[in-house]
Amino acid sequence: MNFQNKNVVVTGANGGMGQVITKRFLEEGAKVAALDLYVDEIEKWENDYPDHLIAISANLTKEKEVKEAVGKATDSLGHISVLLNTLGIAQSATPIDEVEFSDWDRLMAVNTTSLFLISKEVVKGMKEQGAGVITNVASIAAERPRPGLNAYVTSKGGALAFTKALAIELAEYKIRVNAINPGPSDTSMLGKFSPEGGDVDQVKEDTFKKSVPLGELVTPEDIAEAAMYLSSDGARMVTGSVLNVDGGRGL
Ligand SMILES: NC(=O)c1ccc[n+]([C@@H]2O[C@H](COP(=O)([O-])OP(=O)(O)OC[C@H]3O[C@@H](n4cnc5c(N)ncnc54)[C@H](O)[C@@H]3O)[C@@H](O)[C@H]2O)c1
């Protein structure tokens, strides 16, 4: 895979999967704008990748901040050819009659609405170029839900539906749009799915690991591998697809 001359925007770049994906793109020669609410980890590498990495702090649920962030990315790198959305938040398992509206709303904003806001900005340039690739990290939970993750599951279902809606709409511009469904992945997010006050390590071991037929948690590297493939020319005829990287959890 060769990402020389590719300009990439990674969202959620400071997170467990986002950091590994950002590094992979840089190692493959891409220029990367790394967007996140927090960019402290990314900023540590800026000197290692001169002219190839820009860290941009933004709340990607806010239309104005998204516009400014994409503007900065484009000014710094040039036109954006690849968008890789990993941003997201978890929901701690909560019975539906106890879910606060504000929590529901925030999950929708971060996990679904942000995809609309950033796609809207990035697609403008991709249409002009007649090329582009967008990949959204959703979740296998959207297809095989877990009790109490009502808002999270719905928000990720929205991400999958949005992916397919854009894939058909943007095919005529040669813009491909796909999704990755990770299974339980060994990042700090995983612990946040347990009920408030639950023992995180025990839930990881007893619930999540055991739910994966291949018997291991997914790693950020597994997700990065799928992200590289879908973003590459090797996947030139792949659009509207959902790639489950879940160790069989969805079966
Ligand atoms: N970890 C898992 O078990 C798992 C399983 C299935 C799907 N996923 C999905 O994979 C993706 C990556 O998850 P992760 O495990 O790396 O989580 P993570 O919490 O490590 O990373 C998520 C990143 O998103 C950023 N973010 C949150 N809200 C934001 C906002 N409003 N604006 C900008 N950035 C924001 C966070 O700051 C964080 O850096 C998420 O979409 C998650 O839902 C994770």
TrEMBL record:
Similarity field: Belongs to the short-chain dehydrogenases/reductases (SDR) family.
UniProt-listed GO biological process terms: bile acid metabolic process
TM helices/strands, residue ranges: none
GO molecular function: oxidoreductase activity
Protein name, UniProt field: SDR family NAD(P)-dependent oxidoreductase
Keywords assigned by UniProt, alphabetized: Oxidoreductase
The organism of origin for this protein: Halobacillus trueperi
InterPro entries per record: NAD(P)-bd_dom_sf (IPR036291), Sc_DH/Rdtase_CS (IPR020904), SDR_DHRS6-like (IPR051122), SDR_fam (IPR002347)
Gene3D superfamilies to which the protein is assigned, alphabetical: NAD(P)-binding Rossmann-like Domain (3.40.50.720)
Signal peptide segment: none
PANTHER family the record matches: DIHYDROANTICAPSIN 7-DEHYDROGENASE
